[in-house]
Automatic annotation (TrEMBL):
Sequence ranges of Low complexity compositional bias: 618-639
One cellular component (GO) term of this entry: cell periphery
Protein name: FERM domain-containing protein
Span of domain FERM: 5-297
GO MF annotations in UniProt: growth hormone receptor binding; non-membrane spanning protein tyrosine kinase activity
PROSITE patterns given in the database record: FERM_3 (PS50057)
């Protein structure tokens, strides 16, 4: 074919490079998948690996599409470091071996900045001797043969400085080693390497950081590793923690190479990069670590997605989670209810799926389904026939009357804690938000009494609207601990003690009505007045009907609303994804036309600094990423993250129902709709744009995860 070309992929093993056929228009993930298959790296650990540009050393995001202008030379590397090498070895020995070869290669080529010859001279020679002994065991070579080729195993820096004195120490050391196997030698090699370079591998980038209108932007070095994002202004200053990986919420980007990093707590951080390739490399690093450590099914940035993950979402299919996880989930979520099932990728084979289901007697069984890419169809092992889709495979399981009995699919959830979280600390046990299934089971039981020891209630929220209306209730923010390790953030209305005599009956009736409603996630101002009762509302939505687009509502926002009205079986948008997407809309359109310390990534003060920044970068190759694989860090770090429940103000931001803010947000939607039709050069009066503080509060109102919030909106 005309679009077929060859790509050269440099690898860390003895092959040195692979030549693979590519088709322009394919994603970089497709090419990475080919490399993994050729090296025997399995479906579980393949997500630890990525491709970077051989010349610029910048990483490609998974969705990057290969173009004819590309030079088609790539480095294949383990990019995301797992939390435990022993765990990596247990899951995929080929991936473990490749990591060993990668670390060994970097030591040989002096590409590990943490390792300094003057400080690690003896350790470097020791690593070289260990590597020679490993080769003797694996290839069954005599000691004399390996000694004669010592330059292949001793780091080049050692040979360069001790060319005439190094042979004898090597000879003496090798004679003393005996009685070990190759796996043990590898393990000891990596343990010593970890002590010398504990931060390996990490990535570094240069950017400008917004420090507010009162201060000029700062040129900083950003460092990303498995635990956190850090920065420093110069190499002589201490490193400061910008955000821990687990505290990331979402990332928004703009066409002018600016990035907004939103955390669970605290003010967002704004960064500007000199080139788009730098920005994409940086954001893909954050996204990769977040997926592998916190939520495997979630992309931090709506503009930097994982193609294979999007496909799994459409198929309502899990990743390669394994049979044990699948059976446990069916038991915990559906109690092995007949007809419930789960589809997952195989953890050992590519293009293979497993259907784990409960038959009519409630007994678990599994069926292997193979996807044939050549004929573009599916076959079920042991069952004649071909199927066009996975859905057809599911429908083929029928009872004696010819009726399909698999009726309820358990989709993947962002709260799944499976073996796919390879970068998550093994011993980390923390509370996570309750998933949709747990919330559904609570709501199905109707009104219920909650023991007080399950609730953590914060101070009442004081309204600050222009018209103070008396209410017999007070509004509180609370945490409801449903089960061990599972929590639910709720808005709590409490009847005032002095009004118990007058309003108890009405209060209990209202609570009963609201308990019948299921969770809606983004609401356009629908009130109960539009429906006579909750049953009518439920019937309206179950019939597939949806409210029409409101006047002045931008199409991007309405599309998001439709996704939030999706089926609760799996297509419904989750709260974090809603915040990510609505923030991307706000950041791209609203903030791009506004000068404000937090409304735009870089105010006018950035212009002169940015020109200088770009001039500094123009003389280099396509990047100014340091992209170091490691560097020793002896500086202390300051954790700048704030706990979300430290102050009363944080509570106000989450459940703010101030009428001013909702009016301003409605005004903004109208402005956004008209702004879309304006050309880039038209000016917009500052007076016509709502105050940014109100917009920030309004976007907080959109964090509606559960029915208790619905009344406040």
């Amino acid at each position: 074919m005309e679009n077929d070309r060859l790509a050269i992929v440099y690898v860390a093993n003895e092959d040195k490079e692979l030549t693979l056929a590519i088709i322009y228009g394919q994603t970089i993930e497709d090419l990475c998948l080919k490399v993994c298959k050729s090296l025997g790296i399995g479906p579980v650990t393949r997500h630890l690996f990525a491709l970077r540009n051989h010349y610029t050393k910048l990483w490609y995001p998974s969705a990057y599409r290969l173009e004819m202008k590309d030079k088609n030379k790539f480095d294949f590397r383990l990019r995301f470091k797992p939390s435990s090498l022993q765990r990596l070895k247990h899951v995929d020995v080929n991936a473990y071996d490749y990591y060993f070869q990668q670390a060994r290669s970097d030591v040989m080529d002096n590409k590990v900045p943490d390792i300094v010859y003057e400080r690690h001279k003896q350790e470097l020679i020791g690593l070289g001797v260990s590597d020679m002994y490993r080769v003797m065991l694996e290839k069954r070579l005599p000691r004399e043969t390996v000694e004669s080729e010592y330059r292949k195993y001793i780091p080049r820096e050692c040979i360069k400085r001790h060319a005439f004195f190094i042979k004898k120490p090597i000879h003496n050391a090798l004679r003393k080693i005996s009685g070990y196997d190759a796996n043990y030698v590898k393990e000891q090699y990596l343990k010593q390497f970890e002590c010398m370079a504990p931060n390996y591998p990490y990535e570094e980038y240069e950017a400008l950081m917004d420090r507010g209108l009162q201060n000029p932007p700062a040129k900083v070095i950003l460092r990303v590793n498995v635990d956190e994002i850090k920065y420093c202004e110069t190499l002589a200053t201490p490193w400061t923690t910008l955000c821990a990986i687990e505290d990331l919420c979402f990332v928004s980007i703009r066409q002018d190479n600016t990035v907004e990093i939103s955390r669970k707590n605290g003010i967002p951080s704004y960064l500007k990069f000199s080139k788009n390739a730098l920005l994409m490399s940086f954001v893909s690093a954050l996204d990769g670590y977040y997926r592998l450590a916190v939520k495997w099914t979630f992309n931090l940035c709506g503009e930097v997605v994982t193609p294979s993950l999007e496909r799994l979402h459409k198929l309502k299919c899990h990743g390669p989670v394994g049979q044990e996880f699948s059976y446990t989930k069916l038991q915990q979520k559906r109690a092995n209810k007949p007809g419930s099932y789960l589809v997952r990728e195989s953890e050992t084979e590519y293009n293979v799926y497993y259907l784990d289901a409960c038959n009519k007697e409630g007994k678990l069984f599994s069926k292997r389904i193979e996807e044939r890419t050549v004929s573009d169809d599916f076959i079920i092992t042991g069952v004649p026939g071909r199927y066009n889709t996975l859905a057809q495979c599911v429908l083929s399981f029928q009872d004696s009357e010819g009726q399909s009995y698999l009726s309820e699919c358990l989709p993947p959830s962002e709260y799944d804690k499976s073996s796919l979280l390879l970068c998550a600390p093994e011993s980390a046990v923390s509370e996570v938000a309750a998933d949709e299934e747990i919330v559904a089971s609570v709501l199905e039981t109707g009104p219920r009494c909650v023991p007080q020891n399950q609730l953590e209630i914060y101070k009442p929220f004081l309204r600050t609207g222009r018209i103070q209306q008396y209410s017999p209730t007070t509004l509180h923010r609370a945490i409801w601990r449903l089960t061990k390790g599972k929590k639910l953030e709720v808005a709590l209305k409490i009847l005032k003690q002095e009004e118990e005599t007058n309003y108890t009956k009405e209060f209990l009736e209202l609570a009963g009505k609201w308990s019948q409603l299921r969770s809606g996630t983004l609401v356009r101002g629908v009130t109960l007045q539009e429906f006579r009762n909750a049953d009518a509302m439920k019937k309206y939505y179950k019939s597939g009907k949806r409210l029409t687009i409101p006047n002045g509502c931008p199409m991007e926002v309405y599309r998001l609303m439709l996704e939030c009205w999706g089926d609760s079986s799996g297509s419904r948008k989750q709260p974090q994804a809603i915040m990510r997407d609505i923030n991307q809309i706000l950041y791209q359109v609203y903030n791009s036309r506004r000068s404000h310390a937090y409304a735009t990534a870089f105010p006018k003060l950035f212009s002169s600094e940015m020109k200088k920044f770009e001039q500094d970068n123009s003389d280099s190759s396509d990047n100014k990423s340091l992209n170091s694989e490691s560097r020793s860090n002896s500086f202390s770090t300051d954790n700048t993250s704030l706990r979300w429940n430290d102050t009363d103000d944080s509570m106000q931001g989450l459940i703010n129902t101030n009428e001013d803010s909702t009016e301003d947000f409605s005004a903004y939607l109208g402005w956004l709709s008209s702004a879309r039709r304006d050309s880039e050069g038209c000016s917009i009066s500052q007076n016509n744009i709502p105050n940014m503080n109100c917009i920030e509060r309004s976007t907080q109102v959109l964090r509606i995860g559960h029915p208790s919030d619905l009344g406040e909106v």
